[in-house]
Amino acid sequence: MKILKFGGSSVANTTNIRKVFSILQDQKSQGEFAVVFSAFGGVTEILLTCAQKANVGDRSYVTELKALEERHYEILKSLIPIQHQSSVLTYVKVRFNELEDVFHGIYLIKECSARTLDYVASFGERLSAFILTEALKVEGFDTVFVDAREVIRTNNRFGNAKVDFPTTNDLIADFFHNRPGLKVITGFIASSDKGETTTLGRSGSDYTAAIFASALNATSLEIWTDVSGVMTSDPRLVYTAFTIPQLTYNEAMELSHFGAKVIFPATMQPAMKKGIPIFIKNTFEPENAGTLINGDDPSGQIIKGVSSMSGIALLNIQGAGLIEVVGVSRRVFGALADAGVNVILISQASSEHSICVAVRSNEVARAKEAIEQEFLSEIKNGEMDPVLITPDMAVVAAVGENMKHNPGSSGRMFQALGQNNINVYAIAQGSSELNISAVVSQADLQKALNALHEAYFLSDNKVLHVFLVGVGLIGKALIKMIASQQEKLQRENDLDIQIHGIANSRFMAFHEDGFDLKNCPEPQDAAGAMPMNLEAFIAQMESMNFSNSVFVDCTASQDVADLYDRVLEAKVAIVTPNKKANSGDLAKYKSLKKLAYKRGVKFLYETNVAAGLPVINTLQDLMLSGDKVLRIEAVLSGSMNFIFSEFEKGMPFSEVVRQAKEKGYTEPDPRDDLSGMDVGRKILILGREAEQDLHFDDIVIQSMVPDDCVETKDVEEFFTKLKAHDTAFTKLLADAQEAGKKLRFMAILENGKAKVGLNALDSSHPFYTLKGSDNMILFTTERYHDFPMIIRGPGAGADVTAAGVFADVIRLGNFTR
Ligand SMILES: NC(=O)C1=CN([C@@H]2O[C@H](COP(=O)(O)OP(=O)(O)OC[C@H]3O[C@@H](n4cnc5c(N)ncnc54)[C@H](O)[C@@H]3O)[C@@H](O)[C@H]2O)C=CC1
Ligand SMILES: N[C@@H](CC=O)C(=O)O
């Protein structure tokens, strides 16, 4: 014998009921079973509301009751052919007549006791189960209607009656023994030994099913609902939550206590006592295996779920007068009990200086008053401080029976929370080691759940939440590149990259679920676009509070770079091609790196030098492995190399510079390249990465920007003015060519000093053959002494740069894994 229970959502309308019938048809070949039904979805609430309305003299209950009656007729007429309807119609009519009378009575005497409410509520299940009993006959089942009031005996604690199991078990066994056929049972309702109608409290229909399962020693109990079992976390907060295949009874109780509302602990008890397996199944996805709950789980998995409880406040009771005083806890908890406050979590350190208690927010004022009253004299004479309240808290809990004697679970929990900058206010773990709970701020709840979920269940799967400032040439190329790789990274590398914030210098926009990158709008065209404000952008990023957030700066802006410390303080990683932070003040450069290290987040800037070429990483590896850089000789500007190599082909200089800009090789302002500033910044960064304390003053830079072109209204005017210097540049080139040389704009760093400028090189020099946007870097080090280490390749352009930025973002996925 198997017991199946279908909840209100499964029988909310004819379409859903047909799904239930098809599930029952499939059961026919699988042995004997009985079925428990809840009231049709929402009916109980409507009945109770009508009663409350009648109780306060609000006659609108009459229309609501009429509508409810109609709904029942509609359902029965759609399920039962006309020739079989009459007895069912009569049954329903009589029940609604009774209800009318009851409500009228309430309306007249303005009295509605718990007993009356139970009686009113009982109509929901009586109606649904009766209609479904008859409808199932039409489907070919030999059904028997079971009004559970006949067999479940309880005391008369209306609203939450206690079951008299010995009597109930006998009555159920007798009933089943004497009545062949498929029993269709009303959930939720029972009766007292005086024949009064009672109800079984929250999730009462589940309880009914468990009572029958226990009384009949059922082989299993199936709870059919509208979700596919118990999930690893709340799917509304954790998008990657998934169904837990198997749970022990204890784990299921812990999880449901902390928010997995699929099953209510008390309802499991009768089945649990008999070791009856419970399946949680989805009526709308019957093929889904759902969750099996039983006494044992052979999977050996340590953590099964991460659940939470919102709306919590912390009470801190502290003072020197608490230390080594016997009876303090008894008085605290006695006072709370007397005030009817439910204690959710308790934590006391061994110093005994303070006791921390978590309670529901709506009970905190009462709790504070009760404790302060209890310790009035201690507070007065300073032995104890007034009770401190920390509001707006939430509890997150990792649950799993196999934590027992398995070191590392709590370590993982607090590492994940710490890495994501989530402050833990209190901790509790019982010696049963079934649950580790941490109190965090309500604002951090979603982030905490996601961080823990990832740490425990998705160690192979990572979601990176990107906030991109600078949707210009590189930024747009980056979005395109992520869009084209997004699915493959998810599928093959378990890496999900989502962009939640985009901005240019004028507008910013955010998307909670991540922008659709294949059709990503420009910031100004996105829904909810607003004027750009850097502080507000960062504040929004902080308030979205995702775990694994990444701030990508694709601007050339000093203002953006100036806010990196704030970003890192918020434990958000930074990826950037922007050189401003690393080529600015030396102390700031060092402090940013230190801060990133301290906060445990990455600050990656491979594209600061030579775009996507692996220059910074290589240099960092050399330094980490103990090498020493003696000399760096390099062509570090893709645009300058393009300009001087293309110029050889005979085009006017100003025209080649314009082409370099059009090809996306130059800085937003090409004078940054021509002036040598860009190369100056790069050689400075390389020097600093080589552990040399370089300042910008240590670099001698030869600018190629003619004096009258330095100050112009805009870039266009600069190009116009540059034209006037074409002849002078052609002469420079001709002189070099005459000497059999080529012009290369390069940087040399040696002995703590750097030089940046134009050189005429003969064919013996490695830079002689460079073409287009090529960069080339020669590292002469203690290890690479006789022959330098050489890195060469395109060092500018949208695609190679965006690819480098993208690679840094992907690297974050691996780093934090
Ligand atoms: N073009 C290339 O080959 C390479 C470029 N880079 C670096 O990449 C960065 C971006 O370069 P491009 O995309 O070419 O520049 P761009 O001028 O095309 O785009 C810059 C974007 O940043 C935005 N922006 C500027 N200031 C801002 C602020 N304060 N707040 C918000 N947004 C702001 C602009 O509106 C624009 O959307 C620069 O730092 C550049 O040095 C690095 C390596 C190679
Ligand atoms: N303008 C730069 C691009 C990247 O830093 C260059 O020309 O190399």
From TrEMBL:
It comes from the Bacteria. One of its GO terms (molecular function) is NADP binding. The keyword Metal-binding applies. It catalyses: L-homoserine + NAD(+) = L-aspartate 4-semialdehyde + NADH + H(+); L-aspartate + ATP = 4-phospho-L-aspartate + ADP; L-homoserine + NADP(+) = L-aspartate 4-semialdehyde + NADPH + H(+). Homotetramer. In the N-terminal section; belongs to the aspartokinase family. In the C-terminal section; belongs to the homoserine dehydrogenase family. This is Bifunctional aspartate kinase/homoserine dehydrogenase I. The gene is thrA.
